[in-house]
Amino acid sequence: xxxxxxxxxxxxxxxxxxxxxxxxxxxxxxxxxxxxxxxxxxxxxxxxxxxxxxxxxxxxxxxxxxxxxxxxxxxxxxxxxxxxxxxxxxxxxxxxxxxxxxxxxxxxxxxxxxxxxxxxxxxxxxxxxxxxxxxxxxxxxxxxxxxxxxxxxxxxxxxxxxxxxxxxxxxxxxxxxxxxxxxxxxxxxxx
Length: 191
Fold this sequence. Notes:
This protein is of the alpha+beta class. It has a single domain, classed as Aminopeptidase (3-Layer(aba) Sandwich), CATH 3.40.630.30.
């Protein structure tokens, strides 16, 4: 399988819709969860969240990247300057952030979506590699992520995997920012 990754701002909106129509949270979130308060998120319709992502895609800079597997839309990663994700600063991960919240040169990876038919085929890793390169090319000095360690999760880890896994980030060179990480780690990579 050939995997390519492109900026969401450069691809047809229909391809973004295909990926975000993956069963589960993507259908209702449209990568807006970390961009607004809980009250705003809960009171915003799915149609309005969809429109918000479309507007972000069109006005730029891109809110994320789209992966293609053999030409088919297969995945998404949300990667932007950390300041674009204000919910992070009110979350439990905030205490482990390596730099001040307003450091504009720090980027964050907050979400992955991989269509079920393309899971366990390297799409997530391709998205991660492309996200790092995109952040670097856009002037980021470091990139931060909030993955989970599936070994620390009791029960089904499926609901947590949209953050990515600790092992995939470690393989890409990320390091833990905190000495004693929780289930959701804060991991960084200097660019």
